[in-house]
Amino acid sequence: MTEPWSGLPPVLAEEVSANWDQVFPDGVPAWASEAVGMGPVALAGAIARSLFLRESLQRHGDLIRQAIQAQPLSEPTTAESLSQRWQDYLAEVTDEPSLHRALRRFRRESQFRLIWRDAMKLADYHETVAAASDFADIGIQAALDWLYPRTCEELGTPYGPDPVTGEEVAQPMIVLGMGKLGGHELNISSDIDLIFAFPGKGETRGGRRTLDNQQFFIRLGQKLIQALDQITADGFVFRVDMRLRPYGQSGALALSFAALETYYQDQGREWERYAMVKARVVAGDQSAGNVLMKSLKPFVYRKYIDFSAFESLRSMKAMINREVRRQGLENNIKLGSGGIREIEFVVQAFQLIRGGRDRELQQRELLIILKELEELEQLPSPVVKELREAYVFLRNMEHALQGLEDKQTQLLPDDELGQTRVALIMGYDSWQPCLEALNGHRERVARHFADIIALDDDDEESPDLDEGWQELWLAEMDQEAAAEWLGRHGFEEPQASITALADLRDSRTVQIIQTQGRQRLNQFMPVMLEALCHVDQPSQTLSRVLQLVEAILRRTAYIVLLLENPGARTQLVWLCSESPWIARQLAETPLLLDELLNAESLYHPPAKEELDDDLRQQMLRIPYEDLEEQMESLRHFKKAHILRVAASELSGTLPLMKVSDYLTWIAEVVLDHVVDVAFANLVSRHGYPRRADGSACDKDFAILGYGKLGGLELGYTSDLDLVFIHDADPELSTDGDKPIDNAVFYTRLGQRIVHILNTQTPSGQLYEVDMRLRPSGNSGLLVSTLPAFEKYQLNDAWTWEHQALARARGVAGCPRTLEAFERLRHDILCQHRDPARLRKEVVDMRERMRASLGTPESKQSGVFHIKHDTGGLVDIEFLVQYLMLAHSEAHPELTQWSDNIRQMEELGRAGVMPVEDAEKLRETFITLRSTIHRRALQNLNSQVGADEFPEERDYVRQMWKKVMLGSASE
Could you tell me if 926 and 901 are in contact, meaning their C-beta atoms sit under 8 angstroms apart? Predict the structure, then answer.
């Protein structure tokens, strides 16, 4: 008798044979018959193709039996059949836990049907994406239909104006689906991007107390997300991503129509236009949703032909390309070259550019738009045909990859078993012809993408290179001729350069790289050597550049980048000549080379709002639960933007004050995101912390920055002095399935934040964190409540801790908690203090610091430590802090700033010190700090010769003697 798996490829036949008895220990069940499309041959084929199908048959036989009794697998999946099947599950729902269970069982049944029909080629692309999207629509609507009336019973019914008639009515929730869900093109295994909205402002009626409509819909939204996203013993329904909403993770979970319209009108970014192209009302009141979509249409589709869309899409594609290179995603059929994303970009570029004029383009499904572009003669028929065929092929392969284990992936398998499974699903006997077909489609897509969207190479052809550089690199010159050649071209140490080149050329890494890599290196090195002639000290610069070359020898894409982009090459050589610190950063993180491609952005770092937007875009598609990838991306973001700041300082486009501002903004943006990630991670496990009124906290947590961070004076290698506070009731607990005390929640939140910041990853450490300035130092709680923090500052804090508070400010977290801290800081700084006692305590602390950190007396004749020695920066800081603490009671306006520069200005304005002294002290402070910044870029410490800055040091000594050691009246 022929075994049912005998017709399969050998590697899969062996796999099925080995697992058959585990899947069917009692033989194939009677319900799995030919009549319902599940005969032994079909079962063997399904088990061969998908581990998910195998596991489902093995563990969930009863569920599958009920499913095929309701509808045989041979019949297509439709919205009607799914909706009817949900009614069977809904009959079992009596409370929220049973709703969660019913949705998850419904999901497993639907996934089994979806993946079976796709893998066995019973369904084509169109049925698969329609069924996946219909299931999502039905699941979201089902959860909302059940949760809305129960939430009204609990909190009251929200009332407000009807968006059409203006009459006072009960307000519905509108759920917008974005991305592939919005386009009705959802994958077999995908997360869903949602935005929650409601028609208008108002209040609830009929509840125990009145709630603002927004509070009601935020609470309902939280329940809806839990119903879909929370992982239980039955699994989950969908991973829900809310980061496409206005302001991303920091924005309110639900917004009124008016708030949404105002946001997109005033602040909407180009990438948000791109995202809104596919937006669709997937649940809630459709008529109200249509009013919202109509109001947002002018934001998406401009009345004029809008060619600016090309540039924004290029920027987005460049960002994706960097991500692909960084993560090695060339085998990703979505993000890699010639992948699904490039087809989407082509189509949506035309929608954004011409959609305002050509209304036929104001649709969502990609294949429909392609047809419209052909009919409008925007794309030639052969191009449309190739893009359509490639899109269907790539999406079918995406479903094949995801159907293997019901996982969201677009990466090609690298093992024989996985490759054979995918080939079989795609209709090929083996992997090689399947891969060839895939590569053919990707090559055609990449070509069309380059023709339509990709940037033209505006760089002029580089002039023919003198053959001498080639001969030099390949050691075809003798030593004497090589030294003479380098000397003639300005190399200050020709012999050292010859040795460095020989060491690289003879290194084991160069010896074993593949032929193509060697060819690229041999093309690149002569070009690089010639470029070195145009900077000062080319020999020294060469030694710095070679660190980078050694780092990218096996990643030849970077060599190609520098070879094909003269502008980037020029920037690299100049930056390495100016700063060994930058050279080391580039060698440690070669991905930063991408920043050299655009000289304009390299020397003009973005303001804080743009930084925030850039980080949001970069992190958009990384799930919060993927902590490792979040940490890697944050480290790259920080390094890339610090490189821009350093380049700008070296080029003279940023003065010192702005350098510190930008470095501080980078830290603040990173900290804000880290709080969001850590908070979301804990909420997914334990729910939201609760307030006394029963509502869920939206963080109630803040990070306080002290020292250089608090004073907006961060340097390139500064650590972060942080203090954590929260303003929640520590006696209450969270509202999740695994509740913990609020106090425990916030302690864990603090620990998670420190972990994310401190941990060493392949990209290094994000920031070194110092928590010693918290109440009671290292022996104190990691996170204090606001009342406990206030009590400590009023009753137990030392004078030096109030000095530190003068340079403290809120830098991330809940705005309400940050405002409460600022009021508290003001009150503490304005306390009455005895001037003589205060002066003594400040002077004593300064002497102790100088003794432990300053230059020993035996060495003071040779060096001056800019920061810690007499006449240095710390003297100025202590002097300013003393005056702040001594005079804020009489001049409360002094407390408004936390940075030394503006504090000095305010001290002069208030008359605490003469304006001319305040100005001169400020200029001295800037001069000394500028020197520390410049030395950091040269990898030098803060010690200079003892004869440096004599006038500045004398002036600081005089001011210290006059204010701190004199007897002037207060």
Answer: yes
